[in-house]
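Below sits the subject:

***
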Amino acid sequence: MDDRETLFSLGAQVGRPHLEAVAFNFDPARLTQARFAAGLSKARLAELVGVTPSAIGQYESRASTPRRDLLPVIAQALHVPVEYFAAGRPIGRVDGSRAHFRSLRSTSARDRAKAIAFIEQVWELTFALEKKVRFPEVDLPSIDRGQMDPLSAAKALRVQWGLGVKPVKHLVALTESHGIVVSLLSMMNADVARVGAFSTSHLERPIIVVTPERAKSVFVYRFTVAHELGHLLLHGEAAPGDKQQEREADQFAAEFLTPGAQIVNMLPRRVDLPRLDELSRHWGVSIDSLLLRMKETGTVSDASIRRGYQKLNQLRGSGLETPEPVKAYPGEVPTMLAQAAELANESGFGQADLARELRWHPARVREVLGVEDPRPALRLVRDQSQA
């Protein structure tokens, strides 16, 4: 055990964060990650802490270390325990250029940084759980990226996962069963919801995160997950915002969810919304997606497609056609991380232990796991007679 480990061990023995140990073992990457996760600029954090923005920059660049008395103040501002800043545990490092973002142009750099911090923490949570629980092996076909087109990649994944030509039922459960982590971001991260979805294949285990913005409709949500699968297979070198990569991921998703060889013979020869609604539910895709398939296959004219979209929008405007929530469909809400945590708990490693190992607050563990706070909510009722 080296001097840093000894010092931090001594701090752990007193039952509270040992400021000297944390200061001596300070990891600037943890400060950056926590700041991104909180969605704060250097200037805003500096304002909350009472230092200059350049001081925060020096802390993050390793040029200097925060004073011991500042550590609790920084921790409170970033909603993390003081010991979060200590080195000595694995950290998920994802460069922003190595992540795919579903809605890049409509999101700020701050929101993308917050998304990156979240996906790093999803990996760290997964890594901690994998010490206690055996996860499914990652099972994706070997594809020579840049050499295979999206349609061939979709067919290759169907073959690899033994799907044949049938509809993909329980897409998220299927994806998780093949070792890919899927996370449905909670509403607590409303800022990141504007990102839509994001994924990376540059950690030991691929991760897909979908935000509430894409989960308002189960069909949009399923297409988004398939879109991110396309990125994982096709685009090792992410080019955030690249139109060609986005088109290819959409093409992959359409072919994976509705194989062209089968769907072309099932599509109506005119824009028949009741028939398209039946096909929508059979294949688990939106009517919009099927209209696009009709356009791609030349089943009907472009003018008919435009009228179809107009009718569909009229129905939605009148409330006759409403999105269906993801939770109404079994196998579409991610469960792998939560189930792994339950198994770990059965072996004596509960959420409190997980929080201590990760050096997170328990609430953050629940948030990344996607589970609700089990504690009953205290509701205070004002005595109107005393008003």
User: Anything to note?
Assistant: The chain has two domains: 3-88, 100-328. The radius of gyration is 24 Å.
